[in-house]
Amino acid sequence: MADYHLGDVVQLRKPHPCGSDRWEILRVGMDFRLRCLGCGHLILIPRAKFEKSVKKLIASVHGACPESKGN
Predict the structure, then answer these.
(1) What order of strands is seen across the sheet that includes strand 42-46?
(2) Which residues lie across from 15 on neighbouring strands?
């Protein structure tokens, strides 16, 4: 299970109707509040649904960006 923080940017599996699949995390807890980086729409989803929907962590405010790590 990944550790998510306020301000992190995640890519979700299903794109938003505006076409963007990138979201900024605004609230972490039993529910996650996300802001679409395409149109600014806000959503609130339960933690279980959020964790199933995340494809990858794009940018983290706590440490290096996961995409810059060598695999």
Answers:
(1) 42-46, 31-36, 22-27, 9-12, 54-59
(2) none
pTM to 2 decimal places: 0.80
pLDDT digits (tens, 9 = 90+) for 22-44: 999 999 999 999 999 999 999 99
Concatenating the DSSP letter of every residue in 4-52 gives --TT-EEEESSPPTTS--EEEEEE-SSEEEEEETTT--EEEEEHHHHHH
Residue 64 CB neighbours (<10 A): 9
At 43, list the tokens. Answer: 């959503």
Phi/psi of residue 20, each to 5°?
A: -85, 145
